[in-house]
Amino acid sequence: MIAVDALNFLPIFTYSIFSGKKVLLHLPDFSETRFDSKLLNSIYKLVTRLSCIYTDQIICVSRPMKELIKKWGINQDKVTLIPNSPSLIGIYPKTGPVSNPVRIVFTKSEISMEEYSFLSEIFDRLLDYDLELSVTVIGRIPQKLTKEVPKGMKLTGLIPLEQNFTILHDSDIGLAIYLKPESFEKYADSLKIREYAAFGIPIVASPNVSTAIEGRDANAVLMASNEQEFVDSILRLTRNSILYRDMSQNARIWAQKNDKDKILNEFFSKNFKVL
Description:
The chain is α/β, with parallel strands linked by helices. Helix content is 45%, strand content 17%. It has two domains: 2-81, no CATH class; 102-257, Rossmann fold (3-Layer(aba) Sandwich), CATH 3.40.50.2000. The strands form two sheets. The chain has a six-stranded parallel β-sheet with strand order 7-6-5-8-9-10, sandwiched between helices. Helix 4 crosses helix 9 and helix 7 crosses helix 10. The longest helix is centred in the N-terminal third of the chain and has 17 residues, at 38-54.
């Protein structure tokens, strides 16, 4: 039986006592400030810790979450890190050099005013370098910001996964902007960074999420903390064909190591009897 998050662990654990079935606890989005109340947050953290103690197996999606579980004194033998990575079935990487104009993509479910302004500043600065480019922005943006969209930038809003993947496959560089990560993002894993990597797209990312650091260690991500660093990283990729080729290949290799189907098949065959 699988419990997603500690909030539905108790009824499953209670049933497991009588049924004798094993329990798997999946922790995709733990947050130290999940509620507005300090009391509720304290209770939630306590319940999560107790759930980790009494479950048979734990799946967490990020290194920070695995480290927190270790800090709680939980037996590490029952903890498995499985990132929030996509299955590579049907995902084929982009091949070839950078396009002309350069195709840049930024995707996030909810894009704040601050993030859109940050992206617009990057776009404007790139134009100062006479770089031919297009930027596709995928995600929900406050309506008042969509009235004046500069030439070369396209806003799609939220779109179906298939359409999203079509755009990623045709893109050259993926941007991952995390200005002020939410509490849950500290212990979460960036799906968009992993989707970029699955398509063999070199990534420029803020250093505020563990996925970006992992991608940097895999030589698939360039880290950037402000607008100019994003611009400089994009220019490096567009002006250095060898760097671009190597990072593109590294991104795909990194994604293959984290293919969700492969990881889950190995995990369940090792730890559970699957009927």
